[in-house]
Design a protein that fits this description.
With 138 residues, this protein is of the alpha+beta class. It has one domain: 2,3-Dihydroxybiphenyl 1,2-Dioxygenase, domain 1, CATH 3.10.180.10. The protein has three helices and six strands, in the order αββαβαβββ. The strands form two sheets. A four-stranded mixed sheet has the order 3-6-5-4, with helices on one face. Strands 1-2 form a two-stranded antiparallel sheet. Strand 5 and strand 6 form a beta hairpin. The protein is globular, with a radius of gyration of 15 Å. The two termini are 24 Å apart.
Length: 138
């Protein structure tokens, strides 16, 4: 195995409380560590297994086309595997996320819902309909 022990995606957000309400409270990510001082706040949330998915521009456009119907995401999109993408999306929308599109069933048999978090980050919530580990593209 490689020398990397953890992948940490760091989001700089304008509204810390809204982001915490979305990611921790609505999505259910548990806080591993929190730090607060007069000059700033940080919380590290557990998010299961981390991977890096590299996609060229053509594949990123294809994913956006499948999920949304047009190219919309920036260079970073967070994809989260959840037990029920539709129910999870409803919880996140109740906490300030915006529905971009979906749900859609992808050719690799995932039910995907695309959201935009209050911080502008595009989130793909996906639920595997048929477990096929070799096809785990989000």
């Amino acid at each position: 195995m490689g020398t990397v022990h953890e992948l940490r995606v760091v989001l700089t957000v304008e509204d810390f409380d809204a982001a915490l309400a979305l990611y921790r409270d609505a999505l259910g990510l548990e806080a591993r560590y929190a730090w607060e001082a007069e000059d700033g706040r940080v919380v590290i949330l557990e998010a299961g297994i981390a991977t890096i998915e590299l996609a060229d521009a053509a594949q990123a456009a294809k994913i956006d086309e499948l999920e949304v119907g047009r190219r919309v995401a920036g260079p970073v999109r967070i994809a989260l595997e959840v037990a029920d993408s539709e129910a999870t999306a409803e919880r996140l929308i109740d906490r300030g996320a915006e529905l971009v599109a979906g749900p859609v069933v992808t050719p690799w048999r995932h039910r995907n819902v695309r959201l935009r978090a209050p911080d502008g980050m595009h989130l793909t919530l996906f639920t595997a309909l048929d477990e096929q580990p070799e096809d785990r593209v989000s």
